[in-house]
Design a protein that fits this description.
The chain is α+β, with helices and mostly antiparallel strands. It has a single domain, classed as Ribosomal Protein S5, domain 2. The protein contains 4 helices and 4 strands. The chain has a 4-stranded mixed beta sheet with strand order 1-2-4-3, with helices on both faces. α3 (73-88) links the parallel β3 (61-66) and β4 (98-104). The radius of gyration is 16 Å and the shape is globular. It starts with 10 loop residues before the first helix and ends in a 7-residue tail after the last helix.
């Protein structure tokens, strides 16, 4: 189970991650990663608007998209449970305030846990590498 403060629930948060975030596609899934920037993103969270988020502590939050193209409900739920478990173990690696959306593709229905893990790790590695490269200072003085 993913802790409630680490879950994406609002449509707006999913849209933000997909539209503003970077994307890494793999054969079994597509991962979107966005950073929440700006003064109002975390400081305006009150217990009324965001009941599961502690004030002032932006944590990485994850959401999952598993469409009917993946298969019947039993298969979709199995894929979602596997992805939730995999992402839960990797949330600590994500920058604070990150939004991550994992979209399962139809081949994920027949994939093993290890195959999903491999694709998720490869996608996150690519996204985090890009993120670190973008935030690293350039060596202009060398």
């Amino acid at each position: 189970m993913l802790p409630s403060e680490n879950r994406l629930r609002r449509r707006q948060d999913f849209a933000t991650a997909v539209k503003r975030g970077r994307r890494a596609g793999r054969p079994l899934l597509v991962v979107h990663l966005a950073r929440e920037d700006g003064p109002g993103d975390h400081t305006d969270r009150t217990s009324d608007t965001y009941p599961h988020v502690a004030e002032g502590t932006p944590s990485a939050r994850a959401g999952f998209v598993v469409s009917k193209a993946v298969g019947p409900a039993v298969t979709r739920n199995l894929v979602k449970r596997r992805l939730r478990h995999l992402v839960r173990d990797r949330l600590s690696r994500l920058p604070a305030g990150s939004l991550i959306v994992v979209r399962a593709l139809p081949p994920a229905a027949s994939a093993s846990y290890q195959e999903l893990e491999r694709d998720l790790d490869a996608a996150l590695k690519r996204l985090l590498k890009v993120e670190h490269a973008a935030s690293a200072p350039t060596g202009a003085g060398r």
